[in-house]
């Protein structure tokens, strides 16, 4: 791979050209009290298979049927307090807290099929490694040695060096090529680099963001990690054997682009393999005016994979940031876990919610229901006369502001029994958790409609009660695109699908410095594309460990072409309104690290290819700013149009006139292998691939194919999606195809 020198612009010029990057996370400003003790140790969690109910098949009927098996529970405890989860779709059955004797009693009841103890799952970085198919001692983790020998550099807010996530047990010394230095409270084989670029020598983390992202990418194994008892398990980063180098480029007031570029510069010099940036600037900034795009190009030219957050600008079109083709851009999705709290209504309905403050459930004999109140005039919990709310549960719309949090604190101080916060229409089914240090349960927008309707109904006394369920796994559908995750297409480079990939970013548990919040730590739960980004950085490190000679583009291709396009129900991945997510929500799909290291074929790109593309977009002026190599001019380079860039995703014009793109794939699988083209497109598209078969006789062999697309009868659709799959006996290499009305927005 060709490399080019890095020439940093003067600070004064930077100040005039660049906007200030911001961290791509949503800070819940969480505080809380210690959770009460766990349930009695005599209980175990059992999964019980039963026959389905004979009559009504509704959700309430299933739950009542399942509760009927638990009537022999201990005195003073109701069946519903023992029932952890009721299954009606994946199978007929339930999960419950039972003693061995109670299991024997349940087994004698008509309708029982079988029961078995629930396994103790390893909840690692909020359970995400397990959710992503990573298993200790097996698969890609074992093949990659957990990422050993790879250095992940993070540009962030610093790092709490003495956190147990950064212990170096089992981590070998860094490779000899490492040239960096470490100025931290503790440096070891795990934390090999720590430097500050914000005007001091303190690489510590007073905000928490950098500690969280670092441990998500490459934190070591930490047993009995939890957030005050929630999500209990063994925490670990996606590449727990990799080395960490922290470049502190952000203050509490933000991240100056000059500091960001200084950190990028040093990271390249130091010899990192992967760069993780959970920050972003304004939308629609030309690449030659974007500090991250410029710095990332320099890093990629040195063989470094650069992974960046796609932004938290919400679900509007063209809100994605960090959209340069040489960057691996990450969107945020959910995981299959809930910090469950249930609201039982007086009419018998049960509303599933979540809460980060969970109290010990009252016994059935003492549990009380409270009046449920919703006021349209006080929709956001802005109650000023608090004397009338004592002993009531208030229903409010969540707006996640400091003012609302203060109002809730006043409400609870005045004796309210609790608060239910429902999502707005935009958030939909994305419940982004905050800790209110009191009885506050958060529910979806759909359940908010049910609650407000019930609370304002003509019933003489609408009432409700809370039941806390702690941590439930196997929640579906998952993943689901987070409401805040920025969407494509790129307004600068509409012919390249951005974001590139979807990864876990909602309610992520990872390391946290105690000084960042006295009531939080050593782990915290926060959300954002900031949290999704280090998941992909860790995956890139695993692939780099197995394939140290692969280019950044090859690693990106491997991640994209092996991604999943279905959720854990087997259906299409959904967005926050439970509508089918588009390619501009998810990118190529949801990351699947278990197979990404063995993709079969890759779409590779050289720095010369990228430079030719920059010429096509921005001419010599843009080339000089980004590539920084005075010996290169656009006259020397082929101008590579966006559609012809050898990217692992494909975008063509939505037109009746046939349009052809060419792609080249490299064999990284078995030396002798044959791939057949499979096209999945709607009837409004006609797609032809030539040749339809690619036969390889050796590793590293390249084959070029053409793909021609035309459309008919699409009406006013802005774009149409499909896919191309190259299928062999051992591999499926999938690329999204988008036929789009290519209307470019003028860059700023």
UniProtKB/TrEMBL annotation:
Domain PA: where?
370-449
Family matches, as InterPro entries: PA_domain, Peptidase_S8/S53_dom, Peptidase_S8/S53_dom_sf, Peptidase_S8_Asp-AS, Peptidase_S8_Ser-AS, Peptidase_S8_subtilisin-rel, Peptidases_S8_3, S8pro/Inhibitor_I9
Inhibitor I9 domain location, by residue?
A: 45-124
Concerning Pfam families, the annotation shows: fn3_6, Inhibitor_I9, PA, Peptidase_S8
One GO MF annotation is: serine-type endopeptidase activity
UniProt keywords, alphabetically: Glycoprotein, Hydrolase, Protease, Serine protease, Signal
- Active site (UniProt): 156, 209, 530
Task: List, alphabetically, the PROSITE patterns matched.
Answer: SUBTILASE, SUBTILASE_ASP, SUBTILASE_SER
Per the record, the similarity remark reads: Belongs to the peptidase S8 family.
What name does UniProt use for this protein?
Answer: Uncharacterized protein
Organism in which the protein naturally occurs: Lolium multiflorum
């Amino acid at each position: 791979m060709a490399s080019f020198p890095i020439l940093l612009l003067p600070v004064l010029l930077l100040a005039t050209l660049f906007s200030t990057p911001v961290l791509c996370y949503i800070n819940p400003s969480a505080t809380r009290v210690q959770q009460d003790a766990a349930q009695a140790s005599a209980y175990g969690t059992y999964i019980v298979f039963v026959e389905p109910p004979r009559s009504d098949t509704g959700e309430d009927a299933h739950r009542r049927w399942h509760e009927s098996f638990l009537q022999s529970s201990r005195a003073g405890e109701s069946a519903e307090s023992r029932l952890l989860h009721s299954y009606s779709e994946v199978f007929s059955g339930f999960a419950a807290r039972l003693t061995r004797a109670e299991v024997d009693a349940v087994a004698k009841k008509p309708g029982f099929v079988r029961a078995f103890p629930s396994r103790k799952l390893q909840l690692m970085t909020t359970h995400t490694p397990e959710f992503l198919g990573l298993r200790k001692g097996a698969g890609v983790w074992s093949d990659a040695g957990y990422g050993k020998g790879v250095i992940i550099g993070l540009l962030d807010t610093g790092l709490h060096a003495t956190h147990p996530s950064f212990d170096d047990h089992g981590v070998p010394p860094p490779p000899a090529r490492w040239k960096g230095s470490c100025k931290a409270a503790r440096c070891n084989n795990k934390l090999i680099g720590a430097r500050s670029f914000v005007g001091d020598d303190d690489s510590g983390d007073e905000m928490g963001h950098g500690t969280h992202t670092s441990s998500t990418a490459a934190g070591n194994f930490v047993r009995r990690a939890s957030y005050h008892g929630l999500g209990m398990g063994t925490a670990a980063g996606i590449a727990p054997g990799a080395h960490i180098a922290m470049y502190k480029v952000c203050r509490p007031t933000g991240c100056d682009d000059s500091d960001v570029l200084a950190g990028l510069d040093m990271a390249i010099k130091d010899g990192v393999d992967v760069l993780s940036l959970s920050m972003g600037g304004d939308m629609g900034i030309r690449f030659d005016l974007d500090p991250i795009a410029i710095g990332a190009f320099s890093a990629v030219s040195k063989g470094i994979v650069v992974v960046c957050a796609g932004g938290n600008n919400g679900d509007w079109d063209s809100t994605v940031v960090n959209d340069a083709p040489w960057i691996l851009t990450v969107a945020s999705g959910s995981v299959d876990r809930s910090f469950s709290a249930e609201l039982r209504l007086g009419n018998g309905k049960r509303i599933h919610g979540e809460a980060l403050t969970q109290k010990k459930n009252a016994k059935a004999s003492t549990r009380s229901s409270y009046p449920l109140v919703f006021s349209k005039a006080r929709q956001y919990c802005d109650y000023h006369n608090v004397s009338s709310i004592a002993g009531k549960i208030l229903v409010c719309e969540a707006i996640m502001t400091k003012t609302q949090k203060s109002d809730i604190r006043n409400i609870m101080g005045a004796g309210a029994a609790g608060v239910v916060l429902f999502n707005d229409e935009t958030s939909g089914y994305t419940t982004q958790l905050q800790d209110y240090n009191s009885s506050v349960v958060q529910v979806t927008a759909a359940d908010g409609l049910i609650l407000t309707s019930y609370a304002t109904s003509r019933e003489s006394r609408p009432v409700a009660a809370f039941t806390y369920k702690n941590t439930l796994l196997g929640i579906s559908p998952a993943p689901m695109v987070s409401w805040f995750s920025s969407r494509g297409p790129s307004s600068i480079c509409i012919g390249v699908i951005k974001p590139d990939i979807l990864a876990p970013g909602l309610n992520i548990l990872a390391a946290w410095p105690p000084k960042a919040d006295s009531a939080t730590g050593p782990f915290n739960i926060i959300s954002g594309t900031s949290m999704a980004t280090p998941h992909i950085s860790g995956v890139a490190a695993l692939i780099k460990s197995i394939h140290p000679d692969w280019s950044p583009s090859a690693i990106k291709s491997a991640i994209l072409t092996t991604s999943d396009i279905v959720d854990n129900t087997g259906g299409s991945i959904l967005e926050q309104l439970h509508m089918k997510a588009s390619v501009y929500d998810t990118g190529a799909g949801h990351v699947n690290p278990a197979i990404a290291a063995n993709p079969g074929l890759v779409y590779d790109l050289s720095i010369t290819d990228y430079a030719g593309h920059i010429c096509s977009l921005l001419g010599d002026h843009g080339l000089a700013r980004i590539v920084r190599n005075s010996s290169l001019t656009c006259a020397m380079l082929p101008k590579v149009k966006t559609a012809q860039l050898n990217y692992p995703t494909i975008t063509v014009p939505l037109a009746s006139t046939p349009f052809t793109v060419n792609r080249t794939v490299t064999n990284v699988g078995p030396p002798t292998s044959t791939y057949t083209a499979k096209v999945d497109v709607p009837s409004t598209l006609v797609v032809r691939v030539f040749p339809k078969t690619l036969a390889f006789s050796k590793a590293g062999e390249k084959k070029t194919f053409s793909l021609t697309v035309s459309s008919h009868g699409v009406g006013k659709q802005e774009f149409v999606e499909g896919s191309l799959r190259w299928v062999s006996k051992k591999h499926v290499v999938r690329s999204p195809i988008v036929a789009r009305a290519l209307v470019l927005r003028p860059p700023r």
